Amino acid sequence: MGQLPRPLTPHVSALHFFGAELRRCRCAAGLSQAELGRRTNYSAALIGKIEKADRAPGTAFAVACDRALATGGVFGRLIQLLDQEHCQREPERSVVSSSAPAVVADIEPIRSAIAVFGRIDQQYGGGYLGRMIVDYLDREVVTLVKASPSPAVLAAAAVVARKAGLAALDGRRPERAGRFLDQAVEWARLADNRVVLANVLVTLAHYHLATGRPDIARDLAVASMGSGAGCVPSSLRAKIHMMQARALARLGERRPCEWLMIQADTAFARSTAATRVDLDGISAVEWPYLIGQMARCYADLGLADRAITAAADAASAYPAWQVRRRVMNAAIWSTNLVAAGRLEEAIAVGHQALTAAAGLRSSRGFDEIRRLEGAVAPYRGQQVVREFLDRAQQLATT
Fold it and tell me: Whole domain around residue 356: which residue ranges?
């Protein structure tokens, strides 16, 4: 009887995630390590080591595996994820850190997992991340909370639960998302960590906005500012102001929305690079995030020209590995080009969004693409539009 393969731990690092994905794709193709080795001109032993994260892959190996397994470039993009993980982050005070050495040792694996989850979410979408982060939450985080419910552990657990909620929302599981976010609120309150609580509440506001309740989203965004009781950093303050603006735009309240966008821009200008790192370890409060949220406000208010400028700037500013946000902003850019009567440009930008979306599992990303499809549908009499719609349909079924 053959020996069972060693269980893998994709949540530990980007290297482990690469190895786990390699094994999953290889097994899905029905190939042994030796058979994949023959197709890629690499040894079975090397493939085994990479799958177990004992060796780091190179770019040539990734490209060879993409070709052999017909992945559409998954491993080539994962190499970028590995590069991102090796980049040294700016020194900062983490909201889930503690001066007590024993507690730091307890939560360090959680902090590492949070960073990996954040990168996977941005590159592949919450639909890809969902099961992985739920398994990690149940197996590792809940166990640690029960064993050592210190403020630092509870704050770290709240951050993971928040990310699980977003992943569930992006995977079209809103009820599960709501449960995870409620758990995140509870843990943040037990930790008495006002910054984490403020970030969770503004995420809960985003959840209600995404599920069609902008009035509740507005109220939660206001509550998130109050929960910080003066300790909310300027970067998070900018994020909260922008969520309030998003809710007001959805409600059609243009003047207060524009005022809050100005407040968000002012708060961001006062922030420092170290405080712009999101609580999940991803630079979510950088300038592209802010301008992308403004694009959504302008789109909801029917201000197509402003939405075009903001969405184009955001789509262009995000690095290549942040696929989900690039797709969303490119689709918003294209949709508003249609509204402005610039159909030819809209189709060109729309194709950029479809190219980037290959391999993405994100309801948020594909919802924006569907809105774009709806915007161009009245022009399906034109061949370029029919070709675009056919391509979008093919992407939706893969």
Answer: 315-398
